[in-house]
Amino acid sequence: MKSVLFSRFFILLPWILIVIIMLDVDTRRPSPPLTPRPYFSPYAAARGGPRLPLRRAGPVRGVEKLNESRQQPPPQPQLPTIYAITPTYSRPVQKAELTRLANTFRQVAQLHWILVEDAAARSELVSRFLARAGLPSTHLHVPTPRRYKRPGLPRATEQRNAGLAWLRQRHQHQRAQPGVLFFADDDNTYSLELFQEMRTTRKVSVWPVGLVGGRRYERPLVENGKVVGWYTGWRADRPFAIDMAGFAVSLQVILSNPKAVFKRRGSQPGMQESDFLKQITTVEELEPKANNCTKVLVWHTRTEKVNLANEPKYHLDTVKIEV
Ligand SMILES: *[C@@H]1O[C@H](CO)[C@@H](O)[C@H](O)[C@H]1NC(C)=O
Ligand SMILES: *[C@@H]1O[C@H](CO)[C@@H](O)[C@H](O)[C@H]1NC(C)=O
């Protein structure tokens, strides 16, 4: 009996030592990343506020360890998931744009990226990219029919609809978890604050967009907390004179309006947003975000067309490099 116990003890001993060593190595890791949690949160900053600089100093960390409760993240009962639908297509700057976007999204909690390629199949470039992006994501593809690939026609209609269809299918059976959907084109620039604003969307929320419509910004005009019109330099007669980057919709609204999609038929250029929003909401119902629509938190940036004038016709380099 005793010898059995002894042999068990010696079998376990090395494992215990390994665990102790691993725990020790873990606590000696180099300083933690600047933000303690992988997303931006003014709450966290406010909580830790003035103490943050101290955290970086070695000895203080040890003291803080004594009171674990202070390091616990605040309880966040069911933070609504943000679903970002991004249509994308193959072009020289594609990977650069997706990299910028992923670097932003990686700092947002509870974000699910729905990347929809305009292609007959998933490309290797995007597949590899997503596999390494470190983000919860879904990779879809749908080709735009040839007849719609003309200047003057709205773009990414099929891709956005594929994202909507995926969302509806995914939540078909279960009771909808709280969620918010927005359309994140891959050429825009997003402030992290924007995600905090949109996360509290009850039905449909709106906010200003910078560098769009031939102006420095466009914005919903707000009076007494309600949207009453639009500040825009282009087609002010649109029912919702807003860019794709200027609104978010709650998952519940998407699910309870199963037929709401982006339309090809009868849709005029620039009317995609209005055509879609008309199906799910009214101007009176819109929830203004970003300080009653007085802050620009997203910019409709455009990457300059790259100069490939000196690119050789045939592959000349000794290696093949993905760009
Ligand atoms: C740890 O911190 C909490 C909250 O700041 C405080 O209520 C508690 O008394 C502290 N415990 C110890 C042992 O200092
Ligand atoms: C927006 O305006 C309404 C009505 O004027 C006001 O009650 C509310 O506090 C404002 N919201 C913000 C975030 O400033």
TrEMBL record:
Its cofactor is Mn(2+). The chain crosses the membrane at residues 6-25. It comes from the Eukaryota. GO terms for cellular component: Golgi membrane. GO terms for biological process: carbohydrate metabolic process; chondroitin sulfate proteoglycan biosynthetic process. Glycans are attached at residue 292. It catalyses: 3-O-(beta-D-galactosyl-(1->3)-beta-D-galactosyl-(1->4)-beta-D-xylosyl)-L-seryl-[protein] + UDP-alpha-D-glucuronate = 3-O-(beta-D-GlcA-(1->3)-beta-D-Gal-(1->3)-beta-D-Gal-(1->4)-beta-D-Xyl)-L-seryl-[protein] + UDP + H(+). Keywords: Glycoprotein, Golgi apparatus, Manganese, Membrane, Metal-binding, Signal-anchor, Transferase, Transmembrane, Transmembrane helix. It is a single-pass type II membrane protein. Pfam families: Glyco_transf_43. Mn(2+) binds at residue 187. The active site is at residue 273. It is an enzyme of class 2 (transferase). It is found in: Golgi apparatus membrane. Its main location: Golgi. One of its GO terms (molecular function) is galactosylgalactosylxylosylprotein 3-beta-glucuronosyltransferase activity. UDP-alpha-D-glucuronate binds at residues 87-89, 118, 155, 160, 185-187, 300-302. Its EC number is 2.4.1.135. InterPro entries: Glyco_trans_43 (IPR005027), Nucleotide-diphossugar_trans (IPR029044). Pathway: Protein modification; protein glycosylation. The record marks 218, 310 as: Interaction with galactose moiety of substrate glycoprotein. Belongs to the glycosyltransferase 43 family. This is Galactosylgalactosylxylosylprotein 3-beta-glucuronosyltransferase. The lineage of its organism: Eukaryota, Metazoa, Chordata, Craniata, Vertebrata.
